[in-house]
Amino acid sequence: MAILQRSLDTNFVESCRLSEEKAWQRLTELVGTQRISRDNLWTQQVVSLICEWLGYLPLGLELVGRYLAENPNLSLTQMLKQLQAQQLEDEAIDSSALKKQPILNTAQRGVKAAFELIWRKLDPMTQRVGEFLSLFALDVIPWQLVETASEQLSWSKADLNRAKQQLDKWQVIQSVEPDTNYYRIHPLIREFLQAKLAVSEQGDKLKRAFIQAMVLIAQQIPDSPTPQDIELVKDVIPHLVEITQTLTATVRDEEILWLFDRLGNFYKSQGLYELAKPWFVKCLNAAKARFGNDHPDVATTLNNLAGLYYAQGCYSEGESLYLHALKLRRRFLGNNRPEVATTLNNLALLYYAQERYQEAETLYLEALKLRKRFQRTYSCDVAATLNNLALLYYAQERYQEAEPLYLEALELRKSILGNHHLDVATTLNNLASLYDAKGRYIEAEPLLIQALQVSEQVLGSHHSNTIIFRKNLETLQAKLEASNYWFQKKLRENILSLMRKIKL
Length: 504
Known about the structure:
Elements: H1 10-14, H2 20-31, H3 41-53, H4 58-70, H5 76-92, H6 106-119, H7 124-133, E1 141-142, H8 143-150, H9 157-169, E2 174-175, E3 182-184, H10 187-198, H11 203-219, H12 227-233, H13 237-246, H14 253-268, H15 273-291, H16 296-312, H17 315-333, H18 338-353, H19 357-374, H20 380-395, H21 399-417, H22 422-437, H23 441-459, H24 464-503
Antiparallel strand pairs: 1-3, 2-3
Helix pairs in contact: 2-4, 3-5, 4-6, 5-6, 7-9, 7-10, 11-14, 13-14, 14-15, 15-16, 16-17, 16-18, 17-18, 18-19, 18-20, 19-20, 20-21, 20-22, 21-22, 22-23, 23-24
């Protein structure tokens, strides 16, 4: 979906002031020519005063116009008086209750007065929904995300939709595009809603519900998201970021770590390492600040940051963090835990990348032993270490040792994940490479065909993995063709030789 405007700021708002002609035109469209006539001098004067009061800001004109349309018996003069009275009332409010709110200029105070008049027309449920929406980032808000988040509050879908209709009607929320379920909130409206939230008796409850819902969504982001996963979650990311910036006092220890880690992983999985790094660093710092330097959660954050360094090829930095994580995990969890096996496997990957094969093999074997013992043989983690160890043996041309490991990993992955998973495609490709190296081209070809089909289906035709699989298949088929040509040539030579002998 094309997004027209992902976010707005105050400077943008101020630059959108309408001309007097356009302001008059918009009010006329909303209220009608019978109530706003250019032929009436008094009407002209009152409309000009209203426009000036609102600073010609489109939002204020929209709010006032809709308010007038909803109240056909309200005169323009009465409207102006209500705005003036409301602003005086706003200014009389104890400033300490709003001391954290931005200082508004004259035009913005006029808009706020219009907003307050509309706010009073909203039923309590719609007001609660408006306050809840102020917790979202100043960005595009998918309504489905609002529905998911509000499940923590046990709001009915019918009540939520009625509130949405009212908020949309009064321009508290605005549809991003016609016939879409994506909305945005004007920056000034969001400020006003946040002020309401700050004094609401339901404020803490709304914040906790929002945080809990967003953390649950973050936890569902996989370690290796596919393009489809990324597409599904991308609109949630700004709202996860918002929590880490404005709601940290309400976020629990384990929640903040999940948010930092998943945000880092979201960018890392796309190869956006510079965007990912700050989140992993924040995660590590938060774990240390909340739990101290020696804690299992600190070990986890060390492990994850090391994974980023590994992906960037910063092996020295990654190794020191993996070793630190391994030391902490062994101290707190003992030597026989799955978490220890994870760090052993990851450190082995790093050593493999540096061609430190002997050190890598020792770690892989230890990780495999642990995983088979505590996660049982039937495990994706077991399959991953089998695949990695086979890849190590393949790199050393120890093909006889690698093949049974690949076959075991492939069988495990198919039985757990099904035939159409990327991990299955990876092992198919690796096993095919082994057969290719041994000259077993006929056995390798169907494996590469399967791997390519899965990658195209899951990642698309232009993903780097798909391109690699396709190139591998093309190279193999060229070898098959050359091998077949050589075989046919030898066969013809043998036949000709035999025919010559017969003639003799």
